[in-house]
């Protein structure tokens, strides 16, 4: 068992910066877990606190059934791969991979055998006598992974594992990493600021901001139902459209249009909310359609198999204040021209409402109704 | 004013003439530069030339000349009871001091580089400033007094300790730069694998900063090798005196500098340091393998 459990974990740096703020998190055994967030959100501090490189100011960390909060890094049975890989420059690949065993006082022959075996698993056999400086970025990363694997830790910690690779290699390494984690079945926590990386790799994601966790969930949950507007704006290659809305007669008034209230949400008439829908979940139409938002096309960005179209919407209120803009994904061959007027229909079941920045959902709506819960389940 | 009026409008001149004059100017500038360089080189090369020829000369003078080849000077030097043992004494002093300087400077520089100490930079600059005084002439009386009270007069250890004290601040300063340039992720990586602080020092830090350690070691040896004042004052008898002090005794009965012995001894005296430079730079080199993906 090597689940990781954190309770009210707090880290305050000597300069007063509160990097982790009473954080509760559970990472299951064998899970591939992502810590995602913008720079400075505390994700790397959290990883380093799990590793023991930072000492927690408060709270506790457990790995499996051991309390490790006050253990030094070497006693926690974790392995960490650093962002810069930190391969020892004066040692050969073989010595690098065998270094954890050298610390554990394994004899020379045992170390060589284990290094050769681990290197073989990662396709590094031909490189054993090279030095790190003679390897490519992808090879260096695999050596760093091999070094982490050699000591059979309970937990792998990866700090920005893909950020030092160039774009093409990154995709390759991503697939490789996911397969490796699946094969080893070791609990793995990795830090990234790239939401696409987190969505692609992780079994579950914790989205962090300002030392707190804003949402924990599977990639699907985090993508489809962001718990708040921060996560909504952070997840997705194109951020979610967030438009002010007002409830009128059981319908939503959004930028001059009337839209149905999303299922399973409880709203009161007259309240002001934020209407959220992803550009991917909007259908563009050049003809007027009922139940559509309409606006003027201002920008068309070609992204290969689809285009990202930005529309300026008229403001919802009668005073005619500044309008908001909306982004829509349009499949290839159907792109409008800038200046066209377009109509945009949200797909059913894909739009969300936010009240004070938090998702208005069946679960959050007081009191929660069992029927609404099943509704959420069906939607997934 | 007049030059401004002639150059500013850029009157159409004869281009060929213009090119020729600039070529001449270029040639003159170049000639001047090389003459100057030759003079400077000669200034530094002539003493070395003397050092290479005079020991083999029958009757050396203070000018460099083609020698009347002989090895008698070396034989005469061997007859001097202190000449060879003084070189050995120099080796003791230099090796001892270099070992202490490298060890303590490495530990101190590592700590100063990795641990946040308030006022660290001020401390370092202060030490650096004071260190030039410690082994300087000004503090010789108190140093002698200190050595006397500690029973370190006429002891090699005393000389080594005082020289070490003088060299340490600069050595810490140099090594701290090397330590600062070494990413902490190396050490953190080793820590996560369970390495103890001493293991980290031995397996990771020392090998990675080895060029820096070699630099400081060589620099310390060269400093001690050339130091005259401290051993001259603290060591009483010629049997413990290093080469730099013994050289001072190579006079004829008439009180004149014995150029035959002096030149020969100078050659022997300078060879070890020169050889050390060659050895260290070929063995350790000043290179960095690089294992950090930038």
Oligomeric nature of the chains: heterodimer
Morphology call of chain A: elongated
Q: How many strands, what sense, and barrel or not for the largest sheet of chain B?
A: none
Shape of chain B: globular
Proportion of strand residues of chain A: 25-35%
Class by alpha and beta content of chain A: alpha+beta
Gap between N and C termini of chain B, in Å? 56 Å
- Using only C-alpha atoms, the radius of gyration of chain B works out to 27 Å
Which SSEs are present, and which pair or pack?
The complex is a heterodimer of chains A (380) and B (294).
Chain A: E1 4-12, E2 18-27, E3 32-36, H1 43-51, E4 58-63, E5 66-67, E6 78-81, H2 93-103, H3 108-121, H4 137-150, E7 155-159, H5 167-184, E8 187-192, H6 195-201, E9 204-209, E10 212-217, H7 219-224, H8 229-234, E11 241-248, E12 251-254, E13 257-260, E14 272-277, E15 282-285, E16 293-302, E17 306-312, E18 325-331, E19 341-346, E20 352-355, E21 358-359, H9 370-379
Parallel strand pairs in A: 3-8, 3-9, 6-7, 7-8
Antiparallel strand pairs in A: 1-2, 1-4, 4-5, 9-10, 11-12, 11-14, 12-13, 14-20, 15-19, 16-17, 16-19, 17-18, 20-21
Chain B: H1 2-7, H2 15-53, H3 72-79, H4 83-114, H5 120-134, H6 140-149, H7 156-180, H8 184-192, H9 197-208, H10 210-226, H11 229-234, H12 243-246, H13 259-283
């Amino acid at each position: 068992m090597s689940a990781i459990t954190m309770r009210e974990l707090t880290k305050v740096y000597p300069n007063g910066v509160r990097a982790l703020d009473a954080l509760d998190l559970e990472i299951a055994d064998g899970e591939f877990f992502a810590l995602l967030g913008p720079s400075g959100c505390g994700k790397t501090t959290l990883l380093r606190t799990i590793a023991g490189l930072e000492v927690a100011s408060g709270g506790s960390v457990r790995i499996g059934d051991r309390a490790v909060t006050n253990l030094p890094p070497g006693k926690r049975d974790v392995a960490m791969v650093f962002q810069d890989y930190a391969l020892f420059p004066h040692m050969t690949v073989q010595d690098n991979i065998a270094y954890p065993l050298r610390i554990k006082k394994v004899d020379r022959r045992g170390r060589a055998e284990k290094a050769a075996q681990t290197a073989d698993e990662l396709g590094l056999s031909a490189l054993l006598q090279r030095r790190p400086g003679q390897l490519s970025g992808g090879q260096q990363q695999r050596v760093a992974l091999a070094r982490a694997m050699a000591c059979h830790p309970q937990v792998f910690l990866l700090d920005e594992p893909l950020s030092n690779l160039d774009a093409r290699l990154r995709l390759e390494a991503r697939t490789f990493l996911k397969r490796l984690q699946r094969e080893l079945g070791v609990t793995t926590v990795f830090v990234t600021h790239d939401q696409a990386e987190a969505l692609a790799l992780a079994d579950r994601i914790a989205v962090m901001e300002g030392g707190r966790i804003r949402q924990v969930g599977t990639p699907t949950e985090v993508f489809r139902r962001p718990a708040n507007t921060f996560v909504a704006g952070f997840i997705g290659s194109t951020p979610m459209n967030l438009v002010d809305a007002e409830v009128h007669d059981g319908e939503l008034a959004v930028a001059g249009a009337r839209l149905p209230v999303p299922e399973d949400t409880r709203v009161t008439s007259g309240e002001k909310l934020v209407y959220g829908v992803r550009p991917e979940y909007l259908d563009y139409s050049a003809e007027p359609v009922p139940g559509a938002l309409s606006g003027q096309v201002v920008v068309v960005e070609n992204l290969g198999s689809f285009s990202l179209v930005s529309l300026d919407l008229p403001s919802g209120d009668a005073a005619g204040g500044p309008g908001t803009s909306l982004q829509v994904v349009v499949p290839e061959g159907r792109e409008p021209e800038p200046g066209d007027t377009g109509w945009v229909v949200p797909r059913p079941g894909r739009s969300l409402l936010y009240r004070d920045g938090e998702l208005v959902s069946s679960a959050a709506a007081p009191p929660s109704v069992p029927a609404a819960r099943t509704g959420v389940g069906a939607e997934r | 004013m007049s030059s401004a009026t002639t150059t500013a409008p850029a009157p159409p001149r004869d281009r060929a003439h213009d090119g020729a004059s600039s070529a001449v100017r270029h040639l003159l500038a170049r000639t001047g530069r090389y003459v100057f360089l030759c003079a400077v080189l000669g200034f530094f090369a002539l003493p070395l030339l003397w050092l290479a020829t005079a020991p083999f000369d029958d009757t050396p003078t203070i000018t460099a000349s083609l020698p009347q080849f002989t090895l008698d000077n070396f034989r005469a030097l061997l007859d001097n009871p202190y000449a060879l043992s003084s070189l050995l004494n120099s080796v003791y002093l230099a090796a001892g001091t270099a070992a202490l300087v490298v060890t303590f400077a490495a530990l101190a520089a590592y700590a100063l580089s990795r641990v946040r100490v308030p006022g660290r930079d001020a401390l370092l600059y202060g030490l650096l400033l004071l260190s030039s005084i410690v082994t300087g002439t000004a503090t010789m009386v108190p140093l002698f007094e200190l050595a006397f009270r500690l029973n370190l007069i006429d002891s090699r250890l005393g000389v080594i300790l005082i020289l070490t004290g003088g060299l340490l601040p600069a050595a810490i300063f140099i090594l701290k730069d090397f330590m600062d340039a070494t990413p902490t992720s190396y050490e953190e990586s080793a820590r996560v694998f369970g390495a103890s602080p001493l293991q980290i020092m031995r397996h990771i830090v020392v090998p990675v900063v080895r060029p820096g350690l070699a630099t400081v070691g060589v620099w310390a040896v060269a400093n001690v090798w050339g130091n005259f004042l401290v051993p001259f004052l603290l060591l009483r008898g010629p049997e413990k005196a290093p080469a730099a002090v013994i050289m001072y005794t190579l006079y004829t009965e008439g009180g004149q500098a014995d150029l035959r012995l002096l030149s020969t001894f100078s050659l022997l005296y300078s060879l070890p340091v020169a050889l050390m430079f060659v050895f260290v730079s070929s063995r350790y080199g000043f290179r960095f393998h690089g294992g950090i993906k930038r």
